[in-house]
Amino acid sequence: MKILLYSMNFTPELVGIGKYSGEMAQWLHAKGHDVRVIASPPFFPHWAPFEGHSAWAYRKTVCDGITVWRAPTWVPARPRALARMAHLFSFMLSSMPLLFAQIRWRPDLVFVVEPPLFCAPTVLFFSRMLGIKSWLHIQDYEVDAAFGLGLVRGARVRRFALSVERWLLSRFSRVSTISAAMLDRAKDKGIDETRLVLLPNWVDVRSIYPHPAGASDTGEPVNAYRTMLGIPADAVVVLYAGSLGTKQGIELLADAARQLSTAGHIHFVLCGNGPSREALKTACANLDRVHFLDLQPAERLNELLGMADIHVLPQRADAADLVMPSKLGGMLASGKAVIVTAHEGTELSNVVAGRGLVVAPGDPDALSDAIARLAASRPQREAMGAAGRSFAETELDRNAILLRLEKELLRCLAD
Predict the structure, then answer these.
(1) Distance, C-alpha 244 to centroid of its chain
(2) Quick one: CATH architecture of 2-202+397-414?
(3) Where are the domains of the chain?
(4) Distance CA 162, CA 143 (A)
(5) Neighbouring residues of 155: CB distance < 8 A, sequence distance ≥ 6
């Protein structure tokens, strides 16, 4: 197959959409498919172009045998509502010439990743013009999320945006998304079930696996991160690792850490970058057992996740079932207990139930209580961690998911 991947985020971004788009392209290329990529300069989660990349110039590179075109994209230092929309729009405009430059190559299928949905009309026109297949993969329902999170307001604007979204989605050969609840939402938007594909974010269970968190049998620390941060081997580490953005409700972690500040054996480690990082550091300024780390290299991810006794994943209630946190797969694969903030019945709650604790979003008391309960019960933590690891092995394995994707791509071309 000749596949054109149209994804704003792409490797070398280590978290979020860029991580999955990069791994998918590399896997398909390794299986013998011809893959080309149109992307922006890497910028996430720092919201600044990576060193060696420019936000203002076109660039062509070859990465592990995959040709990647980078479209100049304005990257706001503070990605608020209007700035974020301008950011997405700038990529749409600058990437259009790169898309139409692929006419001579004539791919079999264009695989476009949302966000940004702004790129969908051009992809549909391009696909119809060449008589080829089009595939939309929804990582975030950005229209619903924009209104649900209060980034955009107005009943008339909402009705118009949703009607345009429905029209666009109905024109793609296939529409995929990352969770069962998000798939149901696509059905509610009028997408025929025969054109829907479940494509969850995966985890490499061979690279992420249970790793000792505390001390060895001799009492010596076995995790370099604990040693570096000065965390005792017998302490309970509560870890959040991921982007520090607006959808996470990340401020809840500072409240929980403050409430548990007298529990001398509980340490919080907050690892990541993003627009909420500085505010979070300010809120935790006087808390001795809260430690901050920048985003860590991919090759150290297993050791980082293995530092935890408890993973914590805050999520705002108004983002429920509009997004599915990609970091959850690594948490479960690490074999450690997980605490998430979600309402019962949401996809996030259903996945974590039995493999961790689910508490109400926006409730620091409930989160603090859940952390304290798990910190006091190592057997419960270990049982939940084992259940999470089993789920990751059976439901989230990267190779199994991408094999299913390959079959669906071939089926799409055959239709």
Answers:
(1) 12
(2) 3-Layer(aba) Sandwich (3.40)
(3) 2-202+397-414, 224-395
(4) 7
(5) none
Same fold flag, 2-202+397-414 and 224-395:
yes
Q: What is the CATH number of domain 224-395?
A: 3.40.50.2000
What phi and psi, each to the nearest 5 degrees, are found at residue 236? -100, 120
> pTM for this structure?
0.88
Query: Hey, how many other C-beta atoms are within 10 angstroms of the C-beta on 293?
Result: 17
Place of tokens 């649900």: 148
Measured CA to CA, the distance from residue 386 to residue 398 in angstroms comes to 19
**Model confidence at 13: pLDDT above 70:** yes
CA distance 178 to 202: 9
pLDDT band per the 50, 70, 90 thresholds, residue 144:
confident
- Residue 136 CA to residue 174 CA, distance in Å, equals 6
Query: In terms of C-beta density within 10 A (0-12 exposed, 13-18 middle, 19 or more buried), how is residue 232 classed?
Result: middle
Q: Which residues contact 338 (CB under 8 A, 6 or more apart)?
A: 310, 311, 312, 313, 328, 331, 332, 352, 355, 356, 357, 384, 388
Q: Which two tokens stand for residue 275?
A: 């627009």
Q: How confident is the model over 247-258, as pLDDT tens digits?
A: 567 889 999 999
pLDDT at 216: 47
